[in-house]
Every structure is written in structure tokens, then in C-alpha cells.
Write a structure and sequence with these properties.
This is Rv0623-like transcription factor. It comes from Rhizobium multihospitium. This protein is an all-alpha fold. The protein has two domains: about 45 residues; about 30 residues. Helix content is about 80%, strand content about 0%.
Length: about 80
């Protein structure tokens, strides 16, 4: 299926990316850019995983702070 770029600004971006990546065609440049963007999005951690890691880190810090407070109180 053909891809028609009807926006001059998008066309300039595609041509610029084509030149930078030395892609043989504008279509190849668009494919490369889209694949790169898709790969970056797919490698991002899920929001739930980020939240779980944040909570674990917060819990560890709270535990460490509690332990250091107890040790100081014993002295």
C-alpha cells in the first residue's frame, strides 16, 4: 500500500532523515524512523513495572531509615 506524504514539513523531515541515514529512498527512511520509534516504545518498561520498582525502592529506603534510627537509639 502506498504512503503519500502531503505535508511539506513532513516531506522535509523525511528527506532530511533520508540524507542523515543514507537511506536509498524516502520510503526506506520513513520505515527506518518508524521502526526505531517503535523499538524504543516497546523497550520502555510498563507503567505498572515502574510503579512496582518505585514502591520497592521506597520500602527499602524506609526500612533502612528505620534500622538506622533504631541503631542510634540503642547507643
Amino acid at each position: 500500500m502506498p504512503l503519500y506524504i502531503k505535508d511539506d514539513a513532513i516531506d522535509r523531515l523525511a528527506r532530511r532523515y533520508q540524507a542523515l541515514t543514507k537511506a536509498t529512498t524516502k520510503t526506506e527512511a520513513v520505515r527506518l524512523a518508524l521502526q526505531k520509534a517503535l523499538d524504543e516504545e516497546l523497550t520502555k518498561p510498563a507503567l505498572a513495572d515502574v510503579a512496582v520498582a518505585f514502591c520497592r525502592n521506597l520500602k527499602q529506603k524506609a526500612s533502612a531509615k528505620g534500622e538506622s534510627s533504631n541503631a542510634m537509639g540503642d547507643a
